[in-house]
Specification:
Length: 309
């Protein structure tokens, strides 16, 4: 069906931090840091009303990530639009490892759902599946969908029906983060290319131990976060692409702060209770802007209105 002109959907979607050190491609946190977007179905044409982060850089055509995801979502639901106005105020910085692309994809899908299914609650499983497929890894996408802390994976059998498994974790009370955001950018696609196909068995064993401990540390015992966030699978291979970030992670960890590269970088995420995070105050953070953040909520379809929406 063609969505009637005048129907408007509005959504809010969080920034996310994937990996958390040892949880490469499977652990993610939603942050209390959001983009808000609105889509209005029209009789024809494409209009972008964009402000904030990346507004001057993103393509204003079919390649716009939110629009592309919205169109894919509508097609999956068997619907379409004759035209569209897309309004976005972005606060999540792009290409810094804070899940801006996952947020854009999840937002596009939630907008599609709001336009096409105005009377039905957003199907989070549907958003998980399409957004994780589009991203190619489920860690930030599912964190942006569910909020809080998640453990997520996709089946290894690529011929199997596409599904995403998500476990919503209950974070230990008082868990906070500081996102230390540099001015330089790293594209996630580039940062994935430098990863080796195989790793030594001892590294794999250590990583398995750390990632198992990570679930325990996040949910039960934040005192274990420093050991649990130790990583051998991605950060060492990416360090040269983001030397200032790698050096800041090392300096923070040396004073006992559980610091990691957020997603594919170059933002540094320090994770812990307020007492643990206070240790970061003695470490020079030159070249980085500190954003203290609590954990955030998942995507919200805030409103659908117009044309019997
Ligand atoms: N809100 C948005 N609107 C349009 N495009 C976006 C938006 N957010 C991210 N993108 C696209 O995604 C790219 C960044 O993706 P990526 O390299 O995966 O970094 P990140 O770690 O921020 O997700 C941007 O260069 C831009 O093309
Ligand atoms: N597991 C992915 C996470 C990418 O996160 P982003 O926020 O940088 O898009 C990876 O490490 O490649």
């Amino acid at each position: 069906m063609v969505i009637p002109a005048g129907r408007i959907a509005r959504v809010r979607v969080p920034a996310t931090s994937a990996n958390l050190g040892s949880g490469f491609d499977c652990m993610g946190l939603a942050l209390d840091w959001y983009d808000e977007l609105e889509a209005e179905a029209t009789d024809g044409g494409l209009v972008f009303e964009l402000s904030g982060e990346g507004a001057e850089q993103v393509p204003r055509d079919e390649r716009h990530l939110v629009l592309a995801s919205l169109v894919d979502g509508l097609a999956d639901l068997g619907d379409g639009v004759a035209g569209l106005v897309l309004r976005a105020h972005n606060t999540i910085p792009h290409s810094r490892g804070l899940g801006s692309s996952a947020a854009a994809i999840v937002a596009g899908l939630a907008l599609a759902w709001g336009l096409a299914r105005p009377d039905r609650r957003l199907d989070l499983g549907w958003v998980d599946r399409l957004s994780s497929q589009a991203e190619g890894h489920p860690d930030n996408a599912t964190a942006a969908v569910h909020g809080g802390a998640v453990l997520a994976w996709m089946p290894d059998d690529l011929d199997a029906a596409p599904v995403v498994e998500v476990v919503e974790l209950t974070p230990a009370s008082g868990l906070r983060a500081i996102a230390l955001v540099p001015t330089f950018e790293v594209l996630t696609s580039g940062a994935r290319k430098v990863l080796p196909d195989d790793v030594p068995r001892l590294d794999a064993v250590r990583q398995a131990t750390r990632s198992a401990l990570l679930v325990h540390a996040l949910t039960t015992d934040p005192a274990r976060l420093l050991e649990a966030t130790d990583d051998l699978l991605h950060q060492p291979y990416r360090a040269e692409m983001m030397r200032p970030s790698a050096d800041l992670v090392a300096a923070l960890r040396a004073v006992g702060v559980a610091a990691v590269i957020s997603g594919a970088g170059p933002t540094v995420l320090a994770l812990g209770t307020p007492d643990q995070l206070a240790l970061a105050e003695g470490v020079s953070q030159d070249g980085f802007v500190a954003h203290p953040v609590a954990l955030g909520c998942g995507v919200e379809l805030l409103e659908v209105r117009g044309s019997q929406g």
